[in-house]
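This part of the workshop introduces the protein records we will be handling. A learned vocabulary of local backbone shapes supplies the integers on the structure line. Getting from the letters to the tokens is the skill we practise here. As an example, a complete record with its sequence and its structure tokens follows.
=====
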Amino acid sequence: MKKCFFTTFILIVLVSLCFSQTIDERLIRLEEGQKSIVQRLDKVEMNIEKLDAKIDFSNQQLRNEIQTIRNEIQTVRNEIKTVRDDLTTLFLWGFGMMLTGMFTIVGFTLWDRRSLLNPIVREQKEINKQIDKTYEQTQKLISTLKELGKEKPEILEAMKKAGIF
């Protein structure tokens, strides 16, 4: 039994030595594989950091461009407001000048007509006075002819034919 035990022990030691070498080799290979994986992961991480930096740079550029566009839009809005205010002022002045011109023309026309009508009104009054004077003279003439018609019936008959009497 001692022999068996000793043989078993030696076998175990030998097997363990054999296996320990393979285990050690495997562990070394695993460690090298892990180092390789870690190196790859480090490279991937560096690439990700570079991409993050590029993305951050691009985002900053986009933000700057957006801010520039906003500033330009605000400038255009201010210019449009200025132009609109200028046009409003121009239209108000234009309408004011047109209305002033129209009122001036209407006022001048009324003043001119009044000054034009004054001589006509005076002339019409003179004509009315002459008509009244002629009417009075005609009435006097008719009354004179009636009196003459009493003395001379031919005059009275001529007046009847004329429709005066």
Remarks:
- Helices lie at 2-151, 153-162.
- The chain has a mean pLDDT of 86.
- The chain is about 95% helix and 0% strand.
- The radius of gyration is 66 Å.
